[in-house]
Amino acid sequence: MMRRFLRQPGGRLALIFAAILCAMSAIMGSYVYSACQKASADYTTLISDIVLAQQATPQLRVALEEGRRLPSNEHIQYIDYFISLSKRHLDNIQNSIEHHRYLIADVEYLNHHFSELNSRLSDLALLSQEAQQRPELIDPLQSVAMEIGSAQSWLYNQLLEDIRAISVQQRLAMQRLSIAVSVLLVLMVSAAITLCMAVIYLHRQRNVMHELMLTDELTGLYNRRHLVNVASAGLTQAQRNRAPLSLLLLDLDHFKQINDTYGHPAGDEVLRQVSKKLRELSRPSDTLARIGGEEFCLLMPNTATHDAIQAADRLRQEIEANTLRGMELHANPTISIGVTSCKSGSLTFEQLYSLADKALYKAKALGRNRVESLLPPNAPSPHNDPLTYAHTLIHEPSDS
Fold it and tell me: Tens of pLDDT along 351-362?
């Protein structure tokens, strides 16, 4: 089924379009996932750590100014506290950055400054220990501490600027994410619609192919293949229910003359209108099929011989009286009909068809526009039943 679908130009285009939509949906889905991860990043804790770290620098300046009036040991303790606090803030900030994988690349250029600040704080701690033994180093210690405080202030201000810029990008990413989600939704809906249309198209093509296999293109009636299948099932059912089944072969009289006189298009139109009339006159349970050029077959389940003969003569009369629309023929077409039947599904379709064909040949030989019946050997003759029609219904043909 899929191979038949792919052979169709529309099927190939639908498959290509669906593949493109699926690829685009996958790419868009990857972008949406990445954007969601980036847009959902929360920098609140990191910003809080930076703000706290920034407060250490002004506190250091105040401590150094007040420390000038204090003994040297207390002065150095203020500087040690600044060093300890600055290191703790620096570690917290670096740990927070490591937890934001989308932030690492944007602030990577500050790694050197972080390392340098950490190294200078370590050097300041060593200098503070020496100053405890050498009071003359207090002034250089204070100067270095102020320089480190200024460098620390610059680093954290720069980091805050970067985070603000990233937050702006984050808002833009959210907007783009909304657009991407909308586009992704449209693509998914389009892909779903395309696949549904492809499935519907394939289903219709399968139905068309199935119908072409079972029907006659010109008349719309069933073809011989379908008739054989239905007849086989009907005979099996008749055998199970011990019911009669009849078969009628119908042939348009002098159809070759119609083709020769009016042309094949006119002959085709005669076949179409006669087929339509026969279909209207048939029962819903009957199966009407075109099995040859101008030859038709009517399978009548649960129908005894005399009923089949009666129905056949009614069909013959209706066709003879039927005036074809839009056609100017010298006379209305007529049909000859051969009838046979069997009880309890005792015959095969081929046997029934052979008997009906012989009956049709007899009707043609006896002048056309008439009904003839031929029953299987040992079957009761309809002559023995006073309620039935005679096995031959003779009508003088109007064109013979």
Answer: 999 999 999 999
